[in-house]
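User: I'm curious whether this sequence folds into something compact or stays loose and floppy. Could you predict its structure so I can see for myself?
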Amino acid sequence: MSTSQLQPSNVRLPASSTRIERLSQIIVSCAEKWFPDAYVFVVVACAVVGVLAVLHGGSPVDVSQAFGEGFWSIIPFTMQMAMVAITGYVLAMSPPIASLLRKLARVPSTSRGAVVFIGTLSILLSLVNWGVSLIFSGLLVREMARRTDLRLDYRAAGAAGYLGLGCGFTLGMSSSAAQLQATPGSIPTSLMPITGVISFSETILTWQNALVIVMVTIVSALVCFFTAPRSADATVTAADLGVDLDDDRVPPAHRQRPGDYFEFSPILTVVVVVLALGWLWNTFRSGNPLITLSQLNTYNFVFLLLGLLLHWRPRSFLESFARAMPSVSGVLLQFPFYGGIGYVLTKVVNSEHHTLSDTIAHWFVGLAHNTEVFSILISIYSAVLGFFIPSAGGKWVIEAPYIMTAANQLEAHLGWTVMVYNIAETLPNFINPFWMLPLLGILKLRSKDLIGYTAMQFFIHLPIVILAGALLMATFDYVPPVIPGK
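Assistant: Here's the prediction. I'll summarize afterward.
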């Protein structure tokens, strides 16, 4: 799906609009005019890294060979990340969730309260699964917009529904970088000696991360409240935007022929769940369940089973699964390019047997006098690169070799280095609309309708999270890489 397929809006700001609203629309105009598709950025990144590797002293043939060898090197991780999105989508589209949406849509009593409610819920859901957060929040916005007793600003509410992807999900269970580092089978062989395996207990389950989650949620809610239109005249509803609010649920299907029996019967669902019960018991019977879920295959399997149960009948499950596929097209296309870039960075050596990754790591070490300064540098660098490569997991494969090499040399805590990267990396999602596309498809809006509001979230969050990451780095002690079998 592309933004050109989405319904445009021709709404002008009223004379009473605030300075924040006017600034937001300027940002919207610039973003809509200048931002190409994310695929363009990843191909440009391939070219830039290839040229830099040659200028660094690598052979052009070696660069080409490394790119080709690395292109398929993270296919397991690519599939795992695609399943994170799909299972979240499937859960959010299940019939029980439809009933829950209708109940939650009745909770807020004011338009501003509704925007804050949606934004807070979006962040909390993203801590469990970013796919659930994105789709559930979009459907909740539409459900609230159907209320005749609430004049909801559809743009502000839609932007609030995107908060989970802008500043929430990398702090929780579906953090791509944290999950990669906690799953030995997903860590590229070139990265394992540098980082080792980093458990969730060193990343998302630290008290420092819990503090950041609370802080980010409060800041986000305040920004939602103060950027939402204050008056009914300034409020732009779905009707004002020409958006059709027909039901988005998977339409009920009926058995047409005898061969359809099992598709409309829960028998197969029960069979699959019963078949998985023994595995679930053995997997979760000891230890922290959150640590257990840090394994990507376990995480996806559990969410897939939940999706089966909530849909109950295979036909409903299959319909929602098919609808989820467009949401992962970018992941399936772009992640192999990240694998190729990662190999060029870590495999191509110059005459001194140094890779481009080594040189960048030395550059970071040279600039950083201590771990706190290092944290600030990583935050800024990660946020800047996030504008051009909007992919937490794939982007981490590119950056991790030199970032974590520098962290080891400076003796910065490896787990919190991952989280510093996480905290800042997703903020550019507020301006680059790559991950916004599934939400835009549900809302039937264009990125320009939301980015004005989400851009304000970016500018307010950025200095806060950079400072928080640096201050909290001082509370950790360095632990060398933990490599399985050694």
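Summary: Residues 18-248+256-473 form one domain. The mean pLDDT is 82.
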